[in-house]
Amino acid sequence: MPNRLDLPAGFRWGVSTAAYQIEGAVEEDGRGPSVWDVFAARPGVIRDGHTGAVACDHYHRYPEDIALMKGLGLDGYRFSIAWPRVQPTGAGPVNPAGLAFYDRLVDALLAAGITPLPTLFHWDLPQGLEAPSTSGSAAGGGWLNRDTAYRFAEYAAIVADRLDDRISTWITLNEPFVHMVYGYALGIHAPGRALMLDALPAAHHQLLGHGLAAAVLRERGLEVMIANNLTPVWPASSSDADLAAADAYDALHNRLFTDPLLLGRYPDLSAYGVGPDLGGCVHDGDLKLISATPLDGLGVNYYNPTRIAAPTDPGLPFAEAPIDGVPRTAFDWPVVPDGLRELLVGLRDRYGAALPPITITENGCSTTAAVDDQPRIDYLAGHLDALAEAVAQGVDVRGYYTWSLIDNLEWSEGFNQKFGLVCVDFETQRRTPRASYGWYRELIAAHRGRFAK
Ligand code: IFM
Question: Would the pLDDT of 130 be above 60?
């Protein structure tokens, strides 16, 4: 059996974070409000009333965080750019001080020998695009509004024009599935809409935004990726009803966000009573636009498989079923390392030649451990071995970015779910590397050592 040290020469090691989860400084240097600032201010929506106002104070402490990354010996750092820092209302004037922050960050990363891998959108939409003031230039409704896709492409051009001399590969969106479901269908993330299936335009408009931004990036000679949250879907039994439910869930979670990009079409959503135009939001030519710029890489965020059974009540064509008999993370997510191999091999089998090289853009777990986080080491080791097995089975995987460098704001869970290789004391902002930090550093060094002349 191959193991993690058998990953190929040139395999890239990294860590991932996102702007709203770490930066803080939400009112500094001209940053405008994001949907997350507004949502977090609502009583009861985030556990313990936590917000991203300060988070890890990375906006000020980024040199210390880059020193931690350098200590790991990383090849790359995946971070996200806060759109409202760059364009405070999401349309119109650029905020030079906001762009200057990312300039400093990128320069400091490069000086540390770390390749920046930016994500243009990790859920912190400018509030001006969700609910514009009367003087605003946008129409509102966030990603429910087609116009947001065009604003996203403008923003992509602004950022690329500033940083394309130093960054060659860009990720457009992070996990459009999670953003649509949690933000627009269930309302447990910003912007807090609970529209159920009426949230589907938020899926299509994100993908349209990807297509438009991808063209902007490609015009500048840049490489384009997207980071999708994907899960192997396990039917609860081999009954026809469970198989049909699993297929319906797979279409929604996985294929809805990957088929249009790689195959230029939406999957069959008839189990949801939805036709190929997703209720009318898909215009002629949109799918061509979404797939026109071939992806240079597919980012895969993997945490766990999902077990699906036939629905118990009307509404949705599936019901989630428990996965028993496996370890669980502090978040109560099932730990199934081989699910990563299964997912990657399944992607290769489904998309064949249409599948670009894969990078694992997120994988990790929350633990309750202060510093001695053996469960995280076990999680990472198991998943990296499964990844090596997928590579041995012929899947082209180029890199692995663990989630996350440091503990951070885990959205509606606040600071209560801790995913970091580095522990953060949110009272003092003191960073303490965990055991997993040393383990990851040793792994990277040992893997590199195999290929050293
Ligand atoms: O923290 C999130 C991240 O923002 C997106 N992917 C999953 C992580 C853990 O829940």
Answer: yes
